[in-house]
């Protein structure tokens, strides 16, 4: 079964600074990869996804992520963080073919300071 | 607008009581899911349904039950057998099983 690790439980960045949230996965082949964002008391919103093709994926709200097979990583980046980006971010991994469930990481909570 | 609705937003359960959480989608998705979210634990899958009239247990199904009589609806019942039901419950759907999931706004269940 696949697994996903988000090593950072909590990250604090200054508004306007760049951001990188880490995500590492374990899977024997190329997985499906997702990033979601969750504001307090809300559901999850899809930021971006990777299924195949170009390893640099653009998402909504100015986010991007890069699939690196050699590092088993799918890190989320944003060049300049806004105060409204404060939220919890979840990485998820799925297996092509639909035989295994999508597995979610434990999340990284982002705090943005002025 | 297409989307997923969950109701109620807050739900209170008394000891020994069964409660039902509603999930409705108008996205014409075949697959639907229920997750439980506790602080620091990410999302844990309770039940999922790939098509109407079919559903499967997830990782933490004990104390929960579901039905899928209509494509649009996937209600979750938290039974009295679930001894620690306090959590945030999220419903999701996807066009087909294991494709991109889209989430509802969630229901917070509290025990009186």
Task: Give an overview in words.
- The complex is a heterodimer of chains A (114) and B (112).
- The N and C termini of chain A lie far apart (41 Å).
- With 114 residues, chain A is mainly β.
- Chain A has no helices and twelve strands.
- In chain A, strands 2, 5, 6, 10, 11 and 12 form a six-stranded mixed sheet that branches. Chain A has a four-stranded antiparallel sheet with strand order 3-9-8-7, with no helix packed on it. In chain A, strands 1-4 form a two-stranded antiparallel ribbon.
- In chain A, strand 7 and strand 8 form a beta hairpin.
- With 112 residues, chain B is mainly beta.
- In chain B, the strands form two sheets. In chain B, strands 2, 4, 5, 6, 9, 10 and 11 form a seven-stranded mixed sheet that branches. A four-stranded antiparallel sheet of chain B has the order 1-3-8-7, with no helix packed on it.
- Chain B is globular and about 35 Å long.
- The model of chain B has no long low-confidence stretch (mean pLDDT 93).
- At the A-B interface, strand 5 and strand 6 of A face strand 5, strand 9 and strand 10 of B.
